[in-house]
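Posted in: Structural Biology > Protein-Ligand Complexes

Title: Requesting predicted complex, zinc ion in pocket

I'd be grateful if someone could produce the 3D structure tokens for the following input. Sequence and ligand are given below.
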Amino acid sequence: VTHRLPSPGAALVGVDVGGTKVAVLVVSPDGRAIGKAVAPSTTAGGDALIAVIESTVQSALQMAQLPLRDVAMLGVGIPGRVDPDSGHVELALNLNLSGFPLSERLEDRLGRPSVVENDVRAAAFGLHVRGITTPAADLAYLSVGSGIAAGLVLDGHLYRGARGLAGEIGHAIINPGGERCGCGQRGCLEAEASGLAIGRRAEAGVRDGHKTSLRELAGSSISARDVYAAAAQGDPLGLAIADHVGRRLASAVHLLVMTCDVERVFIGGGVSHAGEAFSRPLRSAYETLRSVSVTARELLRPDVIEILSVDAEPGVWGAVAIAAEAWKRLRAEGAPGIDSDGGSRLLAPSK
Ligand SMILES: [Zn+2]
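-- Reply #1 --
Done. Output follows.
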């Protein structure tokens, strides 16, 4: 994965808002990373979040030695349902936001135009723009963290679907009758293979009397990181859970390939950083799916899965990519004042 964007022609800022942290990346007009900052996130509502974003952006700009007025556009990726046209966050449960005019509020504070997109969709678009695949490529980004979601780039365009929900594969039922999910269904991918699901499965295994080193952690909550660390040491419960997750995620990759005919499925998110203990069972389950017939091998190409390294930072680069796209669009439309300091209202919703 390249660590730059093909020359956007102006300085851009990407903001990746998560439930635990806010990360900011400043990119130069020739597409290089020139400033970064990270701060703890907040669930105290819109005002508090705007304040965190503002101060984190200022820190990153300081590192880049770039004045705010030289920033052409900000892109914000946020975990939730957003309306990219108005820049409103419709619903972000983890951040305690609903119907929040994020873009407008940010522009009030920073005086620069901004765009907002769902974080995983933005990351998928960023992977496309970073030139890893061919321009018209079809790809999916599968984020496996405390939850699971995907973003789709089809025929070179970010695909949102009718309501912006395209890629919500976390609630695709992948194991009918399986684990109960927060959405009310059973056997959703997220209930079977997310970081939270992995922890729950380990705790259940300990309660059921499995012989495991994870027993020492019982009482405190067991994390996915603990489970993969145990699996790496050959712990039987850790290995069994890693296998289970590998099979479910291989099914998810299969589903993405068969429904959207994507060429690549990039996998990122906290759980995917567990190294071999994570990747080996996934690749082996994928090989098992391929091995059943000549047809299966033809449908599922061997090089579809790419597990991103920690330093690929799909979130912030995705936010920069949507900023670059919006900036290009505004310039093409010849929006008045685009090159001056007076651009702050350019993307305010038209009422
Ligand atoms: Zn669900």
